[in-house]
Amino acid sequence: MMFEFELIHQSKKSKARVGRIHTPNGSFMTPAFVAVGTNGTLKSVDHVQISDLNLPLVFANTYHLLLHPGPEVVQKAGGLHQFSGRKGPIITDSGGFQVFSLAYGSVADEIKGKGRKKHGNSVLKINEEGVIFRSYRDGSAVHLTPESTVNVQKKLGADIIIPLDELPPYHMGERALVKALERTHRWEKRSLDTHLANPKNQAMYAVCHGGLSKELREKSARYLDSLPFNGFGIGGSLGKNTEDLCRVLDYTVGFLSPDRPRHLLGIGDTPSIDATVSYGIDTFDSSYPTKAARHAVALTANGPVRLRQTAHRESFVPIEKGCPCYTCKHYTRSWLHHLFKAHEASAHTLTTIHNLSYMMRHMNTIQQHILEDRI
């Protein structure tokens, strides 16, 4: 099966929509939450263990898989699906996000205006050809270009791949932002040309940039929409708060063809999903539910449950009443409280399973509300 986006229902109330994305490794309904599995697997769980959750799409990280175990190993194993045991669709990024983090500091830092203005020690050079950075594993220099990142993703064998892009920090000046955007567009076109020379039944999403600038967001969306990408990611600096994020989406989505899916890169907590799904976003990725689980925070419709709190010591009820997940069927808040206090690794696993189940149910509710024109 080739990649295809099928529009099922367009809300009468907003730009929100329900669709179905078809890939060679399965189909799924949108809007959908995309769990992040940096090294090809989600933290604390493996793909077989959570197969009953039917996660629609998993996001793996090209940068980390490039450094270990290496794309050649993954290719010899039969591709990332075969290697990892993942039966459903996989999306891989280009590695650009990590380059951005190495060069300018973490996302949290750059949003607070603390991003480094000079390339960090791990990034040796960013120029027209691409990026040269130092491997965190052995210190060797790695050259990442628009062409090489596509070739790596070909070996990984993901269903959806992403071109190389530069993610300028929030505090970047307008002149530098324009320069970065123009270079990103050139990189994306080179990536697309490399991909189309050997599609291998994979789809490629463009990444729209432009910071908080209405003019640059429109320019980026219009240019990338003119090229034969299969879908669009909305990325780059998305602002300091939800208001900024919604403004960026308002600037961007209207210039993207409605017959191709839209993915909001790196945003996938429930408040942000709830605030932005009405802009016509189809997929959202985040490590939010798995990271919350490792911090003993369970997600529920009534708000987060902090399992380390003493109040749960004798709470002999499931995390969430009516939840069909493995954890809620077999264990209580009291048991999970004990596991966290005893520093047992299974606490992370069980809470992760629940949080992923919660996200699936939350997205199912959103889909139903859009079908009913309530969103």
TrEMBL record:
Its EC number is 2.4.2.29. It catalyses: 7-aminomethyl-7-carbaguanine + guanosine(34) in tRNA = 7-aminomethyl-7-carbaguanosine(34) in tRNA + guanine. The lineage of its organism: Bacteria, Pseudomonadati, Pseudomonadota, Gammaproteobacteria, Candidatus Comchoanobacterales. It is an enzyme of class 2 (transferase). InterPro entries: TGT (IPR004803), TGT-like_sf (IPR036511), tRNA_ribo_trans-like (IPR002616). Pathway: tRNA modification; tRNA-queuosine biosynthesis. Its cofactor is Zn(2+). It comes from Candidatus Comchoanobacter bicostacola. This is Queuine tRNA-ribosyltransferase. HAMAP family: Q_tRNA_Tgt. Homodimer. Within each dimer, one monomer is responsible for RNA recognition and catalysis, while the other monomer binds to the replacement base PreQ1. Zn(2+) binds at residues 323, 325, 328, 354. Catalyzes the base-exchange of a guanine (G) residue with the queuine precursor 7-aminomethyl-7-deazaguanine (PreQ1) at position 34 (anticodon wobble position) in tRNAs with GU(N) anticodons (tRNA-Asp, -Asn, -His and -Tyr). Catalysis occurs through a double-displacement mechanism. The nucleophile active site attacks the C1' of nucleotide 34 to detach the guanine base from the RNA, forming a covalent enzyme-RNA intermediate. The proton acceptor active site deprotonates the incoming PreQ1, allowing a nucleophilic attack on the C1' of the ribose to form the product. Residues 266-272, 290-294 are annotated as: RNA binding. It comes from the Bacteria.
